Automatic annotation (TrEMBL):
GN (gene name): Dnah8_2
Stretches assigned to the Dynein heavy chain AAA lid domain: 3-86
Alphabetical list of PANTHER family matching this protein: DYNEIN AXONEMAL HEAVY CHAIN 5 (PTHR46961:SF18), DYNEIN HEAVY CHAIN 1, AXONEMAL-LIKE PROTEIN (PTHR46961)
GO biological process: microtubule-based movement
Classification lineage: Eukaryota, Metazoa, Chordata, Craniata, Vertebrata
Protein name as catalogued: DYH8 protein
Stretches assigned to the Dynein heavy chain C-terminal domain: 93-337
Top-level taxon of origin: Eukaryota
GO molecular function: dynein intermediate chain binding; dynein light intermediate chain binding
Record-linked InterPro entries: AAA_lid_11, AAA_lid_11_sf, DHC, Dynein_C, Dynein_C_barrel
Length: 340
């Protein structure tokens, strides 16, 4: 009756490797490869898994060994159906792990040389951050804007979280300065201060800051983002609603879109909130080219594509450009529609 290919594919995709592949999408890809590769056509002379990867026709075991030795020591991403950029991501992640390991095993105590000590470097950095740190928010301004408006409720929630970040950062930096000066003792019990000292010296984000904020690659990028996020919220309070919103600068982007849905539902008296859906149009404009707010909905920016490119002229997804891992999308018009 010939080979039962369904059995072969099940043995490979579900039995042999199914228990080792835990991610649903990886398992789906594995079964897809099994369907494409394991069938009668694999015995054709022209069949190959990828260019240069074919089933050898040998008579002895030594010939198979010789063929295997001729295969490349490092497989390219295309062999696994991936874009060449996947290798860049892999190499970048591997390099970051190596550098993190090297940084972690460096001595943490101050040296006795003539160079600047760790404490003086961190002290200067703390002073610079405190000088640039924005002031606390004035909540009374929100009351004047309309406390029951759905967008203003979202704004108040964002400001509450940003105020918490600013307070934690200011307290940590002031305590760190006092500890370096010797005014307070940086004992083993002061775990947060010790962690802040070590991480700030290595240009990393202290754990106590990360717990109340967001992820970032370096301390410099994180602090710059703090200033940018604060600038958007402050401009919204004192200068009015922005024409374009930096959606990735919010703690809760989904809450922002929900507030927009509620605003649209209230504007249309015959709409029901549970029947309203969010739609979007990708514009051909950049943030600087937007001169006014939309009649309905909101304009947003700050979204990036990973694993794909964007054709601005045709407004469609395309294959990634080699060596370009991330592509910024143009401004998006997010709006609500009645799906009934």
């Amino acid at each position: 009756q010939g080979i039962s290919w369904n059995t072969v594919r099940y043995m490979i995709g579900e039995v042999q490797y199914g228990g080792r592949v835990t991610d649903d999408y990886d398992k789906r890809l594995l079964n897809c490869f099994a369907r494409v590769w394991f069938n009668e056509s694999m015995f054709d002379s022209a069949f190959c898994f990828y260019t240069g990867y074919k089933i050898p026709v040998c008579k002895t075991l030594e010939q198979y060994f010789d063929y295997i030795q001729l295969l490349p020591a490092m497989d390219s991403p295309e062999v696994f159906g991936l874009h060449p950029n996947a290798d860049i991501t892999y190499q970048k992640n591997t390099s970051a792990d190596v550098l993190d390991t090297i940084t972690n095993i460096q001595p943490k105590e101050s040296g006795g040389g003539s160079g600047e000590t760790r404490e003086s470097v961190v002290y200067r950095s703390a002073e610079d951050m405190l000088e640039k740190l924005p002031p606390d928010y004035v909540k009374a301004r929100l009351v004047k804007m309309g406390a029951l408006n759905s967008m203003n409720i979202f704004l108040r929630q964002e400001i509450d979280r940003m105020q918490k970040v600013i307070t934690v950062v200011r307290t940590s930096l002031n305590d760190l300065k006092l500890a370096i000066e010797g005014t307070i003792v940086m004992s083993e019990a002061s775990k947060n201060l010790r962690d802040a000292l070590d991480n700030m010296y290595d240009a990393r984000i202290p754990q106590v800051w990360r717990r109340v904020s967001w992820e970032s690659s370096t301390l410099g990028f994180w602090f710059t983002e703090l200033l940018d996020r604060n600038a958007q919220l402050s401009a919204w309070i004192f200068q009015g609603r922005p024409r374009v919103f930096w959606i990735t600068g919010f703690f809760n982007p989904q809450g922002f879109l929900t507030a927009m849905k509620q605003e649209a539902t209230r504007a249309h008296k015959d709409w029901a909130l549970d029947k309203v859906a969010i739609h979007n149009d990708v514009l051909k404009l950049t943030r600087e080219e937007i001169t006014s707010s939309p009649s309905e909905g909101v304009y947003i920016y700050g979204l990036y594509l990973e694993g794909a490119g964007w054709d601005k002229r045709r407004s469609i997804l395309v294959e990634s450009t080699p060596k370009i891992l991330f592509v910024q999308l143009p401004v998006l018009h997010m709006f609500a529609v009645d799906s009934t």
